[in-house]
Amino acid sequence: MNKNILLATAFMSLALTGCASMKMAPADAPAEFTYDYTLEGKSKDQLYDVAVYYFAEKYNNSGSVVRVSDKENGVIYGKGVSTWNLVGNICSTAHEFRFAAKDGKARLQYELIRGVPSSSACGWDWPTESGYKEIVSEFNDFSVGLEKALKTGETKQGFMDF
């Protein structure tokens, strides 16, 4: 009998964990994320060039996500999709991104877009709490990598060293 109680308790814990992961992120959760970089001695053109290559590497097909690429003004605007997991399904949430470079500094902004992208395997127009955390982590990781690339001038380690 103790074995049945233990089994039932384990099943309930698993079920409750599954339900908790299906709770939608709060509607008032921040949808915009801004990252500022101070890059002494780097020109607007240098920063823009590195950012173009970095976006191309990270988005694989940057041509499908970049909407505006203007070197003269140092800006890149685009729209992409972030994926997150919902009980074995790969769900998607669209986002816009904006990059701007000036001499010695740059800014990256992401903004989550409500709605269900056609690539999503579920019908949620806003991510779950765990999905939201995945997306924010993805944005933060992208920002860390971009900052490193902007500081070093390289996108892939050793690519320019030939």
Description:
The protein has 162 residues and is α+β, with helices and mostly antiparallel strands. The protein is elongated and about 45 Å long. The protein has a five-stranded antiparallel β-sheet with strand order 1-5-4-3-2. α2 (44-58) packs across α4 (129-152). It has four helices and five strands. 22% of the residues are buried. A hairpin with a 2-residue loop joins β4 and β5 (105-113). The chain starts with a helix and ends in a 10-residue tail after the last helix.
Helix-strand layout with pairing:
Layout: H1 2-21, E1 32-38, H2 44-58, H3 62-65, E2 66-70, E3 75-86, E4 89-102, E5 105-113, H4 129-152
Antiparallel strand pairs: 1-5, 2-3, 3-4, 4-5
Give the structure's gist in a few sentences.
This protein is of the alpha+beta class and 162 residues long. 39% of the residues lie in helices and 29% in strands. It is built from four helices and five strands, in the order αβααββββα.
